């Protein structure tokens, strides 16, 4: 008889808005419009007619109702503008200290409205490591503001406050926020702000269990399905702080069964063969990791 210790890790699968903008000016309750920093996404979304709705939210007010756009009005200086609403806001939103509210665009088609991480093949990789991932049945909020550049200082504080306030109410310590996201220059097709290792740059607070899995290549080209899945697996392995040969915690070893490069080979592995397996060293590092998430 062989007894094997399995780890159970929970993840909240969040979807990032594809279109939207931060508020430009504070908005009071009962207001029938919102002033946004960039009106172009709203102009484009309403150009073809049909029903287009927005959801205004911030780090405190996470579950507001959808409100239909009545019309869009560009205002100076560009690209600012005003989005007129068919019904009034039910609560106020501010822009204090760069922690402004976000206005997300929804048309009712999930793939068109959100970046969505692909978790369909998690057991394929993690059964080898004796790790079971379970999606949280009750999420604080499935929607994340569009962060076209998570390292942008103008968005950084808002992003951290967003995740901090949500994480503080979770009952589990071993929860990872898995976010489908927009590609941005600097982190390939994924980025992890993990629980164990220090993070850079210095103004990024540590101890954030967040993994971004980008859904597209540069210039908006969709990532192939197998590559998107491989990115999810790769970024979640980073949450276990497996070590590596370079500053990015990657390696250049072969997978344990010699089928491909190790999943943690950031540049050299084949992302399109569906063989997302670890080298022996990383496999045992994940298996041996004490539950600290």
What is the gist of this entry?
Helix content is 18%, strand content 23%.
The number of helices is: 6
Query: End-to-end distance, in Å?
Result: 29 Å
CATH architecture of the largest domain: 3-Layer(aba) Sandwich
**Low-pLDDT residue intervals, each spanning 5 or more residues:** 195-207
Number of domains: 2
Sketch the major β-sheet: 7 strands, mixed
Q: State the CATH topology of the largest domain.
A: Collagenase (Catalytic Domain)
Percentage of β-strand residues: 15-25%
Q: Give the SSE order as H and E letters.
A: EEEHEEEEHEHEEHEEEHH
Overall number of strands: 13
Radius of gyration: 20 Å
Oligomeric description of these chains:
single chain
Description:
Helices cover 18% and strands 23% of the residues. With 293 residues, the protein is of the alpha/beta class. The longest helix is centred in the middle third of the chain and has 15 residues, at 153-167. The protein starts with 6 loop residues before the first strand and ends in a 5-residue tail after the last helix.
Notable features of this structure?
293 residues; alpha/beta; Collagenase (Catalytic Domain); 6-stranded antiparallel sheet; 6 helices; 18% helix
């Amino acid at each position: 008889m062989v007894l094997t210790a399995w780890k159970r890790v929970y993840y909240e699968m969040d979807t990032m808005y594809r279109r939207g903008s931060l508020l430009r000016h504070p908005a009071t309750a009962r207001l029938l419009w919102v002033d946004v920093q960039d009106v172009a996404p709203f102009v484009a979304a309403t150009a073809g007619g049909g029903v287009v709705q927005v959801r205004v939210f911030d780090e405190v007010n996470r579950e507001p109702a959808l409100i239909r756009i009545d019309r869009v009005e560009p205002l100076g200086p560009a690209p600012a503008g005003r989005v007129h609403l068919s019904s009034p806001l039910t609560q106020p939103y501010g822009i204090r200290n760069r922690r402004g509210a976000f206005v997300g665009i929804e048309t009712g088609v999930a793939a068109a409205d959100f970046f969505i991480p692909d978790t369909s093949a998690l057991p394929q990789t993690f059964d080898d490591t004796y790790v079971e991932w379970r999606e949280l049945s009750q999420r604080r909020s499935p929607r994340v503001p569009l962060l076209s550049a998570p390292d942008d200082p103008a968005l950084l504080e808002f992003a951290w406050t967003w995740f901090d306030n949500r994480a503080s109410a979770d009952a589990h310590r071993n929860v990872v926020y898995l976010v489908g996201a927009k590609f941005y220059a600097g982190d390939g097709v994924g980025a992890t702000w993990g629980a164990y290792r220090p993070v850079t740059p210095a103004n990024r607070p540590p101890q954030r269990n967040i993994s971004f899995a980008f859904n597209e290549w540069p210039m908006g080209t969709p990532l192939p399905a197998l590559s998107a899945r491989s990115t999810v697996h790769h970024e979640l392995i980073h949450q276990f702080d497996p070590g590596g040969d370079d500053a990015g915690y990657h390696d250049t070893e072969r997978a344990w069964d010699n089928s491909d490069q190790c999943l943690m080979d950031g540049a050299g592995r084949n992302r399109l063969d569906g063989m997302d397996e670890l080298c022996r060293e990383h496999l045992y590092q994940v298996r041996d990791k004490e539950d600290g998430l």
